[in-house]
Amino acid sequence: PSPQEALARLRETEEMLSKKQEYLETRIERELALARQHGTRNKRAALQALKRKKRYEKQLNQIDGTLSTIEFQREALENSHTNTEVLKNMGYAAQAMKKVHENMDLNKIDDLMQDITEQQDVAQEISDAISSRGTFGDEFDEDELMAELEELEQEELNKGMRDVRLPSVPSTSLPSRPGKMPACHFTFLMIKPCSSTRKRAEDEDEMKKLAAWAS
């Protein structure tokens, strides 16, 4: 028989034994009720009922053991059937993989993977070139540009210095030697000549008189 047929037979046997269990349990309850009913009044009938009850209980225990054995066998057969189906399907899959790989050449696969890698590298280089910062205007030397910028700043600084106006130099002469200045009195309304200036003017007049007299 096939595994499916054997499993079906085992399930039928389990069902039959389960019904026999129910029948025996019912008979045990009935014989126990008869033993109680007769009791000591009809000792012989009561003992017969208890004997039948014992036989039914023995059969019930045998059926319990048989059901356990059948259940174990059924589970083992189910597992075997499952393993068989698994192995069969794995065999089908292996044959299918073998058929698929018949048209595959490892050398061609290596060449194909190498081509794919090279194209990926090219694509990455193109992406990097497109996304990189533009170099327009970067061909000038940065040091030269900085030097030119410093020259412009220095020109602006020199221009600012030329625009600064210094105070004019006073027209009056400073004293010939340092010392105490003559006590001259200056005010905003009137300027009084100091005594040294008057003395110089008198000396000049005297010299003019002497020169006129000598001539």
From TrEMBL:
An example Gene Ontology CC term for this record: cytoplasmic side of plasma membrane
Entry-linked InterPro entries: Snf7_fam
Gene3D superfamilies the record matches: 6.10.250.1710, ESAT-6-like
Alphabetized UniProt keyword annotations: Coiled coil, Cytoplasm, Endosome, Membrane, Protein transport, Transport
Family in the record: Belongs to the SNF7 family.
Gene symbol of the encoding locus: Chmp4c
Chief localization: cytoplasm
Gene Ontology biological process terms, A to Z: late endosome to vacuole transport via multivesicular body sorting pathway; protein transport; vesicle budding from membrane
Topology within the bilayer: Peripheral membrane protein
Protein name: CHM4C protein
Originating organism: Sterrhoptilus dennistouni
Compartment(s): Cytoplasm, Cytosol; Late endosome membrane
